[in-house]
Amino acid sequence: MEAKITTKHITIQIIADTAGAAYKVSYYHFIPKRKGNYPKIFLQAGLHADEQPGTLILHYLLDLLEKAEKSGQLNAEFIVFPMVNPIGMAQIFNHHHSGRFDFSTGLNFNRNWPDLAECILNNEPEIPVKLTENEQENKNRILSSVRRWIADQAPITALEKLRLEIIKIAIECDVVLDLHCDVNATNHIYIVPQLMPEYQDLANWMGSRVTLTAENSGGGSFDEVWPRLWIDLQRLYPDKPIPSPVLSATLEYRGLIDVEEKLNKKDAENLMGFFTSRGFINSKIGSAPFTMPPALPFNATQIVKAELSGLVCYYVTLGQIVEEGELLANILLLDGPSAFRKKFPVYAGTSGVVFSMMLRKYTWKGQPLAKIAGNKPLSNRKGVLLEA
Ligand SMILES: [Zn+2]
């Protein structure tokens, strides 16, 4: 007899800002059959709607979660949004899909997420005096305050509504993972420093060549919302017991073109390995398949930018370790008396691993050419650390 399935596939409809259109976003919710109070794991892909590897990874993860559910192995609830940004999916202009910035406002879909500690303190300034000596009570009070803040919001646009729907679900979760990709890159992770090295096993399961830490990268990125609520409140009220930050991270699965069945299936299996090793899935598991380097501060990463427009010819390959001053690329000049005859050299500004490069070879002033993860904080890397 087929086991009873408790998985729900839920669709949320969001009316568009313009007449006659609407978006749909759907998620799978896996719930263990045995009643109980389980941790909740949230996963999403495609917040930057033109970054597709995560969607295929979550497709394979859904298969694995369904199997675990059928065999009664779930030890946590899983909420999975394989394509979280239908607004970005619809952004086709002149045959080109553009899913990073909202066409309507120019906003990067992964920036300007709310600072929840600030939101609840503005909304309910009396919260601090209500904190007790009991951590669980404080957790409940703070989460209730966030829920009231959410209920007080009056989103107008489709993007505001979509964000609030996601916030409503993610705030209830104990693990929040956001799957992205870079342009052309090795696997890497963005995470707040307070969660490392505790979650080095996540990097090991993922095969993250570079794990970069920043508490506040200045952009209000999605993954920082959840742990920072607790980090900020711990800092503001050090004499009150406030829970540790939840695990949240941006998982960068290689580059734009790395949507590939075998590769992404293995990525899903490795994610499942991480969940199993952490006890969220009840099954025997070996150790992580990789031993990856420890985390580095994100302000030690150089984002190498083009100083002029031209054609980039790389001298390095992904994953290569370079020394400061080493030649990274030459840019063929397209302007001036030396046009098409001379090349302009680009050198590494720090020593480290080249973990991100461009796919298209025409560049212009200010465009990123490469990212080098070093271990020495760079003097010019302050304030907003993320690229646009
Ligand atoms: Zn992204």
Overview of the molecule:
There is one protein chain. With 388 residues, the protein is of the alpha+beta class. It folds into two domains: 8-294, 3-Layer(aba) Sandwich (Aminopeptidase), CATH 3.40.630; 297-373, Beta Barrel (OB fold (Dihydrolipoamide Acetyltransferase, E2P)), CATH 2.40.50. The protein is 27% helix and 24% strand. It is built from nine helices and 20 strands. A hairpin with a 6-residue loop joins strand 1 (8-15) and strand 2 (22-30). Helix 1 (53-70) crosses helix 9, helix 3 crosses helix 5 and helix 7 packs antiparallel against helix 9 (261-277). The radius of gyration is 22 Å and the shape is globular. The termini are far apart. The structure holds zinc ion. Residues 48, 51, 110, 180 line the site of zinc ion.
State which percent range the strand residues make up. 15-25%
Provide the number of structural domains: 2
Rg value: 22 Å
- Structural class by secondary-structure content: alpha+beta
Query: Quick one: biggest sheet?
Result: 9 strands, mixed
* Fraction of helical residues: 25-40%
Principal-axis shape = globular
Task: Look at the structure and give the mean pLDDT.
Answer: 96
The low-confidence parts are none
Please provide the count of β strands. Answer: 20
CATH superfamily of the largest domain: Zn peptidases
Strand order of the largest sheet: 1-2-4-3-7-11-9-10-12
CATH architecture descriptor of the largest domain: 3-Layer(aba) Sandwich
CATH topology of the largest domain: Aminopeptidase
Alpha carbon gap, first and last residue: 53 Å
Number of helices: 9
Which distinct ligands sit in these coordinates?
A: zinc ion
Specify the CATH class of the largest domain.
Answer: Alpha Beta
